[in-house]
């Protein structure tokens, strides 16, 4: 293979005496290299023929690895890369690198992944062959998710995908090599370590395994063909891009999935990068004091690498030589594959593995940086100096996410609602809403949320070792947990932030924050739970405490203190306390048809127009064939998925209506470029007893 097409129409039989006929091939002397190549060709032809035979009854018409029927047009190559923003990345270097990609021969285009404005600016300077894909999932710190990037590349309309760090300059040989490989009638993944430019001259003298890649794996170039075919048998976990482990993990898993041939082209120089990459956050420097230092993200990746796949748990019997791994070597002016006998690359992967294992003993020790203990200190000992040691207190999160008017959106969720939480978060991401925080009611939800990149904190008051599902209706635990929301809201109001509390079963069509804020100070705006289409909407107990906007002013804080106090004493959920305190029992504080005035604070309670903020019963909107367009006609900001009995029905109703934005099986937000058909609505959810209304 990969030899000029005039030779070797038919591979000769192996000669006796040539060592390694069956895959001990690299032990063959170099001059027997052509034989190696020919033998491999034979294997591949067999594979190709088998595939053909199984997929169609047409008799195979050729017997070379080149697909003779295929026009020799240059393959379409799409290069994907996520430019990191400073200080992790340098815009100048990125521009230089992308220019080198555009200068490559052949049909090459570039897709920059991520929503940062600098990516758009860069694309704007470089012309039509560079586009930006902003719909990549990313953590609240702005770090893109590797699984989302790979999924986007897999959706490419392209013959070959290349994925690499945005600072790597590609050399023309990359395309030469990929064009040759594109004629391969098999699925493959090619990996190559790029070189540090200052040592480029010594490139030929230093063995490939001595090319220390950046610890985050940033120097690795990956390319693969037929992107619509899977890379690996399992699921790619939610690695944070550029935070270590993911490149090695992926390569290892592709190899062990045995669905693609893996070519290690590290003996070639395909890419170069400056003396070093832009400084990345390093493990162990978490206390640098910089707001939102990203070092915890390395802990996330180590954790994922350790618990998913077989990267850290090689299952016996361990094969030293993967039947799928080949080294690409240059021979004269052509390339050859050799069985990686003492695979430098595999050793490299394994070396990385040891590092991951060494650091992974208890990932949560490294990760639990928003510890609830700390939060307790924050809340109840008025912020001592200890607070400064932990970069992600609730206060830090609020400071980081809040908008220009110090407003935040608060979602509260426990384990049984985590898919709904994620759908809600995905919707906010789609709308470009970034000023949200999530309160996790239990450790499971907390850890899940960290891995999904959410700005999450634990409720300091909810018992650590009790899961939400153990909290049955009527128990003390249940009462505490259902009253978490008002308590947390009050806490945040006291810290000086306005809060839009939104249950995670509230679907957002548009961002309502501006509108709600415009209602003015000393105004508390809440959804009305009134179901009759006509008549007042502020009747007793019609205040829904699952969606309200509370401003951090004296009147509101005082009123919320009264609500929380009332709720603590009551033995029902917190919702009735809101109405009874703010509008008075039997609604004595009612004002007109849609307001109340709380007399001791002069707080005005506004029941929101139900055309704009419909509850789950209003106009039976959820029963419409097309809920989205029905709400569109009314001008809804949101719709609440309440007034439905049982969690299962609630989930089902929302997914069937299409007001659902999360794929739990891949742990990614649904994207327009995604394969929506792979998402199955029914049967994926762990649904337990309903607990609220
Ligand atoms: C780059 O190469 C120089 C010279 O060989 C070396 O001193 C330096 O450590 C290298 N940097 C990296 C990141 O490998
Ligand atoms: C929770 O932990 C405390 C202290 O460790 C223990 O006393 C209590 O019984 C535990 N509760 C449950 C439900 O396990
Ligand atoms: C912030 O407040 C100003 C002045 O009240 C208002 O014009 C603006 O829309 C608000 N912004 C948001 C995001 O609420
Ligand atoms: C609380 O519950 C008990 C028994 O379930 C009931 O007797 C009592 O009246 C309730 N208290 C309030 C304030 O509703
Ligand atoms: C509420 O408003 C009334 C009338 O404007 C005023 O007399 C009273 O002092 C106000 N109360 C508070 C707590 O601001």
- Placed side by side, the strands forming the largest sheet appear as 3-2-1-4-8-6-9-11-12
Q: Which CATH class of the largest domain is shown?
A: Alpha Beta
Q: Tell me the number of strands.
A: 25
Please report the number of helical segments: 20
Ligand roster: 2-acetamido-2-deoxy-beta-D-glucopyranose
* Total number of domains: 2
Shape: elongated
What percentage of residues falls in helices of 4 or more residues? 25-40%
Look at the structure and name the CATH superfamily of the largest domain. Answer: Spore Coat Polysaccharide Biosynthesis Protein SpsA, Chain A
Concise synopsis of the structure shown:
With 693 residues, the protein is of the alpha/beta class. Helix content is 31%, strand content 16%.
């Amino acid at each position: 293979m990969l030899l000029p097409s005039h030779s070797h129409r038919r591979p000769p039989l192996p000669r006796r005496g040539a060592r390694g006929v069956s895959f001990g091939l690299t032990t063959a002397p170099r001059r027997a290299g052509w034989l190696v190549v020919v033998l491999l060709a034979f294997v591949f032809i067999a594979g190709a023929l088998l595939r053909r035979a199984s997929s169609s009854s047409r008799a195979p018409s050729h017997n070379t690895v080149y697909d003779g029927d295929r026009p020799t047009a240059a393959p379409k190559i799409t290069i994907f890369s996520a430019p990191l923003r400073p200080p992790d990345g340098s815009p100048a270097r990125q521009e230089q690198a992308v220019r080198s990609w555009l200068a490559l021969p052949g049909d090459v285009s570039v897709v920059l992944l991520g929503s940062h404005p600098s990516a758009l600016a860069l694309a704007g300077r470089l012309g039509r062959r560079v586009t930006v894909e902003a719909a990549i999932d990313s953590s609240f710190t702005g770090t893109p998710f590797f699984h989302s990037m790979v999924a986007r590349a897999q959706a490419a309309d392209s013959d070959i995908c290349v994925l690499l760090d945005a600072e790597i300059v590609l050399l023309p040989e990359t395309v030469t090599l990929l064009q040759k490989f594109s004629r391969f009638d098999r699925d493959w993944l090619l990996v190559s370590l790029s070189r540090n430019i200052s040592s480029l001259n010594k490139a030929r003298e230093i063995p490939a395994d001595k090319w220390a890649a950046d610890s985050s794996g940033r120097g690795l170039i990956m390319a693969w063909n037929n992107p619509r075919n899977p890379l690996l048998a399992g699921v790619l976990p939610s690695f944070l891009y550029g935070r270590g482990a993911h490149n090695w993990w992926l390569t290892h898993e592709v190899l062990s999935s045995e669905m693609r041939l893996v070519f290690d082209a590290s003996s070639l120089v395909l890419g170069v990068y400056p003396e070093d990459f832009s400084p990345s956050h390093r493990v162990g420097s978490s206390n640098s004091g910089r707001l939102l230092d990203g070092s915890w993200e390395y802990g996330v990746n180590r954790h994922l690498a350790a618990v998913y796949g077989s990267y850290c748990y090689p299952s016996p019997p361990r094969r030293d030589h993967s039947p799928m791994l080949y080294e690409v070597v240059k021979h004269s002016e052509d390339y050859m594959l050799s069985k990686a006998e003492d695979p430098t690359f595999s050793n490299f992967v394994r070396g990385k593995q040891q590092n991951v294992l060494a650091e992974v003993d208890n990932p949560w020790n490294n990760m639990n940086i928003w510890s609830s203990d700390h939060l307790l200190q924050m809340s109840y000992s008025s912020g001592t100096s200890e607070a400064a040691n932990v970069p992600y207190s609730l206060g830090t999160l609020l400071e980081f996410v809040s908008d220009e008017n110090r407003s935040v959106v608060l979602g509260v969720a426990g384990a049984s609602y985590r898919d709904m939480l994620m759908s809600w978060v995905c919707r906010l991401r789609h709308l470009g809403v970034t000023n949200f925080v999530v309160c996790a009611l239990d450790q499971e939800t907390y850890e899940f949320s960290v891995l999904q990149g959410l700005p999450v904190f634990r409720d300091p008051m909810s018992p650590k070792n009790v899961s939400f599902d153990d909290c049955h209706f009527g128990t003390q635990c249940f009462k505490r947990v259902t009253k978490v929301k008002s308590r947390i809201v009050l806490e945040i109001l006291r810290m000086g932030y306005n809060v839009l509390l939104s249950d995670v079963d509230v679907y957002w069509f548009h961002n309502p924050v501006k509108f709600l804020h415009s209602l003015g100070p000393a105004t508390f705006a809440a959804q009305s739970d009134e179901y009759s289409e006509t008549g007042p909407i502020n009747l007793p107990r019609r205040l829904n405490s699952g969606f309200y906007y509370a401003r951090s002013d004296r009147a509101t804080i005082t009123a919320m203190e009264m609500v929380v106090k009332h709720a603590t004493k009551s033995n029902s959920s917190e919702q009735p306390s809101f109405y009874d305190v703010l509008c008075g029992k039997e609604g004595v504080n009612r004002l007109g048809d849609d307001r109340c005035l709380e007399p001791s604070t002069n707080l005005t309670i506004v029941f929101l127009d139900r055309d704009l903020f419909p509850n789950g019963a209003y106009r039976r909107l959820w029963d419409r064939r097309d809920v989205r367009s029905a709400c569109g006609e009314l001008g809804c900001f949101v719709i609440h998925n309440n007034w439905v009995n049982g969690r299962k029905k609630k989930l089902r109703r929302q997914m069937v209506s299409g007001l659902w934005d999360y794929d739990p099986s891949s742990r990614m937000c649904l994207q327009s470029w995604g394969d929506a058909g792979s998402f199955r609505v029914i049967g994926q959810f762990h649904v337990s007893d309903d607990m609220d209304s």
